[in-house]
Amino acid sequence: MITEKVMEEMFKPRQAHWRTSITKVEPNRLTTRGRLQEDLMGNISFSEMVYLLLKGDLPSDNPKKMFEAVLVSFCDHGVTPPSTQAARLMASAGSTVNACLAGGILAFGENHAGAIEKAMKNLQEGVKLAEAYGRSASETARFMVEELKTKDQKVPGFGHRYHTEDPRARKLLKLGKEYGCSGKHVELALEIEEILGREKGIKMNIDGANASILSDLGFNWRFGCGIFAIGRLPGLLAHVNEEMSSEEPFRKITELDTV
Questions:
Q1: Which GO terms describe its biological process (predicted)?
Q2: Residue among 91, 90, 142, 124 nearest 221 (CA)
Q3: Cα gap 149→172, rounded to integer Å
């Protein structure tokens, strides 16, 4: 027989359990990836903390410097990106700082910020293909370019609206070689650049360079847009602050003709 007490226990609201292996929260104690947060503070850089959160361990010296260079390379591209324009327009409209930043990030899409994720996925699949079929980087690059061409698709990570040669990409590739962080993904990206450069004069852009380097650092392609957001957020904040402090509210961007 089910008693009233048993019924109460059966239908007692149960607290939902959230599980995470990232940070353990205890009274007066925070442990992230097995390390006390107060021990990390003052002893590691912000980029190392990001690496620790995403990868589960601290990077050694050269990957640390490489990852920091990647984040710096994302910092800002003036008022040209849609995300910066969106954040500044919201600031001009009187939105709060956090709303402006959110608006900027929400402006990331297939044509802006999405390219790095696409490029990472493309390169990671390409390397797996090369390894599975015993193809060289050159053969794989040719196959990938031709396949995208038949689909009338651009190769993500190559070509830029403003730069015939993206200065950030060239520096990152140089650092990757210097730090020993260039591997099969960078090799494949360079082979693709060789083909596109010869056929169309197209060079690797910042997304292609970062996609190949992050892939060689062991990041899954799904991290691509998120890592970009981490690097770009300070730039968005600077633009929002500039808009709020230096420009008239609700300012006109263009004159509109009425009919």
A1: carbohydrate metabolic process; tricarboxylic acid cycle
A2: 124
A3: 27
3-class DSSP assignment, residue 136? coil
pLDDT tens across 115-171, in order? 899 999 999 999 999 999 999 999 999 999 999 989 988 898 887 777 778 899 999
CATH number, domain with residue 141: 1.10.230.10
pTM over 0.70: yes
123/217 same-domain check: yes
Tens digit of each residue's pLDDT (9 = 90 or more) over 41-56: 999 999 999 999 999 9
Amino acid at 156: P
Same domain flag for 126 and 211: yes
Distances (CA, A) of 191 to 143, 161, 194, 240: 11, 22, 5, 39
Give the structural domain span for 176: 114-224
